[in-house]
Write a structure and sequence with these properties.
The complex is a heterodimer. By secondary structure, chain A is mainly α. Chain A is built from eleven helices and no strands. Chain A has a single domain, classed as Ferritin, core subunit, four-helix bundle (Ferritin, Up-down Bundle), CATH 1.20.1260.10. In chain B, about 20% of the residues lie in helices and about 25% in strands. The chains are: A mainly alpha, B alpha/beta.
Chain lengths: ~250, ~130
């Protein structure tokens, strides 16, 4: 059975919304815990940008589903196997080097992705993409600044940065994975071929790492599964925290 | 932010374009609009958010920018996002007008602002980021 366009579009929006939502949750964990005040503000600002993006995509997904759900329903009442975020964004924050490495990998991808997606045949996705691109450019600048400063920093910061890059590398392949959803939407001009932005991503990352005096990891086995809703052990914990209120008090409203 | 006002059979439709996707003030702005119009006897009021064309600081009028500066926030300088990362741009202090200012952080108290400090009058201030 070939997936219908509606179903594909719905799943695509879930994926894009979930990527933003789960990443924002991770960044929010830094609130009041960041190395210093200005960075606390920076990380939570990034998180807020992503929450806005998640709201936009999940609201649209709920409309496409046509069952009267809201963005909140989708965020707070789905379980792990119904989430489609990349494995990379659910990884623990680790130390600051880890968080900035994850940020670099993800934000550079998103910058190239949304730049291409702006031209989609779907008006709503094009509009959200145009908005997102403006914000994501600031995210890239922030991550890049830190990766270079820490990589080309002290012995300790360099060591921590290289460790983060080496350990998170195996999650980067999945960013470019495509499945039935992408296939159907690419045919209708609504999604982009992720392979087309991969070389530019690799190039950009390679340049930043070189400036940071860090080594680019060799190609290795890449983790996979999120396209099918199969996640690492971390997502369950993230959701149990994020969904605690709604699950304890299902009828609660503002 | 206000793009259009329509009078339909369902009521009064106020069409807004949000600034930042995650702007938490959007909810309050919507409520304020509804409340103000209702107080003047205008209802029902429906506030609709339209995402395209994407909001940009270009749409801020000179009058609005001056109001912002008087309030103490340095208004957005450039109209093109390509010069967004030109940290070398000297942002004028909204309090003493000196351009001898320094960027403390790209991220300020809200998503739309950066944090600066004036090296002359020593006051910290925020700059509305070009968007």
């Amino acid at each position: 059975m070939i997936m219908t366009q509606e179903e594909a579009l719905y799943k695509y929006c879930l994926r894009l919304g979930d990527n933003a939502l789960i990443h924002s949750q991770r960044l929010a964990e830094w609130c009041s815990n960041a190395p210093f005040l200005e960075e606390d503000l920076a990380l939570t600002n990034l998180s807020l940008d992503m929450i806005g993006r998640a709201q936009s995509f999940l609201k649209y997904a709920a409309e496409l589903e046509g069952q009267g759900k809201t963005a909140d329903d989708l965020a707070y009442r789905r379980s792990e196997r119904q989430y489609y975020n990349n494995l990379l964004v659910e990884q623990p924050n680790g130390d600051f080097a880890f968080t900035m490495t994850r940020q670099l990998f993800v934000s550079v991808f998103e910058m190239l992705f949304f730049e291409a997606l702006k031209k989609t045949a779907n008006d709503m996705i094009a509009a959200i993409s145009a908005k997102t691109l403006k914000e994501v450019r600031y995210h890239v600048a922030h991550a890049e600044d830190w990766v270079i400063r820490l990589g080309d920093g002290t012995d300790e910061s360099h060591f921590r940065m290289q460790k983060a890059i080496d350990e998170l590398w195996m999650y980067t392949g999945e960013l470019f994975e495509m499945d039935e959803v992408d296939k159907v939407l690419i045919m209708n001009g609504m999604a982009i071929d992720l392979e087309s932005i991969k070389p530019e991503w690799e190039n950009y990352i390679s340049n930043v790492l070189e400036q940071a005096t860090l080594d680019m990891p060799k190609d290795i086995y890449m983790q996979t599964g999120s396209r099918k809703g199969i996640h690492t052990e971390h997502l369950g914990h993230i959701l149990s925290e994020m969904q605690y209120l709604q699950r304890s008090y299902p009828d609660a409203t503002w | 932010m206000l793009r259009d006002v329509k009078i339909t059979s369902e009521g009064y439709e106020i069409i807004l374009t949000p600034t930042y996707t995650g702007c938490p003030a959007m909810g309050i702005i919507e409520e304020d609009i509804k409340r103000t119009l209702n107080e003047k006897g205008v209802f029902p009021v429906l506030v609709k958010l339209v995402y395209a064309p994407a909001w940009t600081t270009d749409w801020m009028s000179d009058e609005a920018k001056e109001k912002m500066r008087k309030y103490g926030i340095a208004p957005p300088l450039h109209s093109s996002c390509s010069s967004m990362f030109a940290v070398k741009n000297k942002i004028a202090c909204p309090i003493c007008n000196s351009t001898n200012t320094a960027l403390i952080s790209q991220f300020g108290s809200t998503a739309c602002k950066s944090l600066y400090q004036c090296n002359d009058c020593k006051e910290p201030f925020e700059y509305f980021k070009c968007h």
